[in-house]
Structures are given as structure tokens and as C-alpha cells.
């Protein structure tokens, strides 16, 4: 049985047993939060539990390393949709210690891509189109600095509503301990 077949078989029983009832909520986050976190598997259940958040309390946006790599990319768009259309009022960027993005090298990523069949021609086409793969694929040296950078991109976005606090935190993926990096309440500024 493939992974897909296994998931679909389980799902039929899940629905038939009405197990979805325990997860019913609305599309609006009860605690009016949008959280950008890393996609690390250790955070799936730990992050909400460590923050006392339940299903329906927050909008969860994920990216490798909790990075906002482009101010007009899909991560930032998702944050803005949560703020403007889904009643979120605060943003939290939550990075984590022992993040795999701190070990990512653009050169290694490109080599792995080539090993799995991506041709030099394809890479050259992207470079000629103006895509800097070494910048796009790179990781970071300091998770704390990376969280600060993502907070800066969000906080300084020209479409961010006035008065929205953007916080930065780090979570320990083993214990769930949160460390404050940026207190967004201290940084709220609105031009009048």
C-alpha cells in the first residue's frame, strides 16, 4: 500500500467515525494571532502546546527556518491575509534552536539537486532569468539574527496595518521553552 492509499483508507474511517467533530472551529483565529514558524517536524504539536494554543486559536504559516525570504512572496501574503481578512491582530515569528536551515549551504543544495537529475542547463536558465540561487537557497548562521530579520521584513512592510505588533521568539524543540527575541509591543509605531 502506498502512503497515499494508506492515508485515504484511514481518512474514510476518520470521517465515518465522526472524529472530525473534535476539531470544528471557524476560519477566524480565536486568539487573533498569526504565527510564522519553521516547518520542523518537532514543532507540529510542541509549538501550540508550549504556547497554550488550541485548534482554532491561530493562523499558522510555515516556511523553512521561519524565514520571510521576499517581502512580496507567499509567506508575507499569507500574513497579510490573516491580518486583513481573518481578524488576526498580532504576528509572532517563532524560530527554533537546532534549526536545519543553519546547516544549509547553497552549494550543497545545488549539488544535491544535480545528483537528483537537475541539469546544469536548468540551473543556467534560472541564473539567466535573474534568479540568484545561492541567495535563495542559503541558510543562516544565527537563528536569533534570522528571526530578527524576518521580524524586520514584516514590521517594515508597506502594507502592514498600523499598530500591529510583530514579535520574535525562539523555541527549544526538545523542551518547548520560549525565549523572547523581539517584543513587538515595544516597537509599534504609526505615522500620523
UniProtKB/TrEMBL annotation:
SMART domains the UniProt entry points to: Pro_CA
Q: Which CDD domains match?
A: beta_CA_cladeD
Free-text comment on the cofactor: Binds 1 zinc ion per subunit.
The alphabetized UniProt keywords are: Metal-binding, Zinc
- Family annotation (SUPFAM superfamilies): beta-carbonic anhydrase, cab
Transmembrane segments in this chain: where? none
Cofactor(s) demanded = Zn(2+)
What name appears for this protein in its UniProt entry? Answer: carbonic anhydrase
Amino acid at each position: 500500500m502506498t502512503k497515499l492509499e494508506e492515508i485515504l483508507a484511514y481518512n474514510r474511517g476518520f470521517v465515518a467515525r465522526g472524529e472530525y467533530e473534535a476539531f470544528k472551529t471557524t476560519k477566524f483565529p480565536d486568539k487573533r494571532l498569526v504565527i510564522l514558524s519553521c516547518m520542523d517536524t518537532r514543532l507540529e504539536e510542541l509549538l501550540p502546546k508550549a504556547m497554550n494554543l488550541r485548534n482554532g486559536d491561530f493562523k499558522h504559516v510555515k516556511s523553512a527556518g521561519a524565514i520571510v525570504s521576499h517581502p512580496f512572496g507567499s509567506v508575507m501574503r499569507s500574513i497579510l491575509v490573516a491580518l486583513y481578512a481573518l481578524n488576526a491582530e498580532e504576528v509572532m515569528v517563532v524560530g527554533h534552536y537546532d534549526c536545519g536551515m543553519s546547516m544549509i549551504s547553497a552549494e550543497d543544495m545545488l549539488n544535491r539537486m544535480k545528483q537528483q537529475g537537475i541539469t546544469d542547463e536548468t540551473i543556467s536558465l534560472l541564473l539567466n532569468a535573474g534568479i540568484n540561487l545561492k541567495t535563495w537557497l542559503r541558510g543562516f548562521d544565527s537563528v536569533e539574527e534570522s528571526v530578527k530579520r524576518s521580524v524586520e521584513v514584516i514590521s517594515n512592510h508597506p502594507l502592514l496595518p498600523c499598530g500591529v505588533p510583530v514579535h520574535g521568539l525562539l523555541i527549544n524543540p526538545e523542551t518547548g521553552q520560549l525565549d523572547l527575541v523581539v517584543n513587538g509591543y515595544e516597537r509599534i509605531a504609526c505615522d500620523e
